[in-house]
Amino acid sequence: MTDSRDSLGDQQDAALPRRTMARTAKLASLPLGIAGRAVGGWGRRLTGQSAEDVNAVLSAKAAEQLFEVLGTLKGGAMKFGQALSVFEAAVPEEFAAPYRDALTRLQSAAPPMPSRQTRRVLAEQLGRSWTQRFADFDDEPAAAASIGQVHRAVWHDGREVAVKVQYPGADEALRSDLRQLQRFSRLFQALVPGTEVKPLLAELAERMNEELDYRTEADNQRRFARAFSGDDNVFVPKVVASAPKVIVSEWVTGTPYSRIIADGTVEQRNAAGRLLAEFHYSSPARAHLLHSDPHPGNFMLLDDGRLCVIDFGAVANLPDGAPRALGVMMRLALEGKSQDLFELLRAEGFVRPEVGLDADDVYAWLLPLVAPLTGETFHFTRRWAQKQAMRMGDTRNKDFHIGRSLNLPPQWLLIHRVTAGAIGILCQLDAELPVRAIVERWQPGFAD
């Protein structure tokens, strides 16, 4: 029989709050807080403070609240924050500055669960004698993820390993968070202007079951590790052991992309960008998979110059590789064949039959997006990303209405979001790289 005091202690120790009402109240505080600060800011303008000063204060406070709420709730809330972080490069600077630090911190920060709770999960998942499988285990977590935390340990054969342990109650919290966030999607749009929040949340909700079962993640990681085994540019840690809520894999030490974004050299930035683009475009051909969680916390630059990729909870299966139609679209846009491009977009479902669009208008909307493929190298900058976001997000522009008239077919949603996320990281890196040569090599349909 379980001691009631132990049960009470377990609840108090819980690293991931599970009470739906409490979590809902915290999430609701974000849009309500924005509204309240907006009213207060209006009052301060009446007293003579400049709009710029007031907006700066409001943005800074909203950013801090964003980190505090999403970071401490973990689960779907933290995952939402991590997903938003890669689109920060496209936000105009006057809005982006306060969010940059808060969103970047979400890539790796979260309060740890107590060691007693961690050990209980390990015993449930790896057996009561789990300690015998390790020569050493550090109770202090080395890193945090949206639904789990990572511990450094030594396997019984002497290998250094990373032990990823899922938070108890992560499934309930993840589902609850995403339901609540979807309810507030319009209000959350104000937190990060220029980002389409609603489809992002819908996709996170659709894929959550895959991420909750670490056995699926372990299988994905094994497939990536096999595909890139011995590669000169990419390293994927091998899985040592796995269970539904625990993964043990090789420990890797490197420079996180978040640090390179913050203070890396030009050489580091360019190398990190080239490796990321190579990994993104080559994975469908080499592994028949697409790593679908592109944020800087999942990438490191190793001392030997290779890219290390971690966290394979969100992965798209592409048994036939990347769709050939994507490469053909890129090529037709570069060749200026607007009518052929329009017919292909219609055939793939981007242009609905009942919508009256002009081929040249659609071509003009798409052309700036293939600018990175026009020369031998392209410099991905925040300014370029911001220009594209403003062009598509300004209701006064023709491009805004063209974009809203286009359709994004379900089978293209993930590829679109992951590519946009990878480009977001390249812009955060301020990297210059030969992206056209990479696309020519790996993207079917482009060089035909």
UniProtKB/TrEMBL annotation:
Stretch forming the signal peptide: none
Protein name: Putative unusual protein kinase
ABC1 atypical kinase-like domain: residues covered: 105-333
Domain of life: Bacteria
Entry's Gene Ontology molecular function annotations: ATP binding; kinase activity
InterPro entries, A to Z: ABC1_dom, ADCK3_dom, Atypical_kinase_ADCK, Kinase-like_dom_sf
Pfam families associated with the record: ABC1
Keyword list, A-Z: ATP-binding, Kinase, Nucleotide-binding, Transferase
Coiled-coil blocks: none
Similarity comment text for this entry: Belongs to the protein kinase superfamily. ADCK protein kinase family.
Keyword set includes ATP-binding: yes
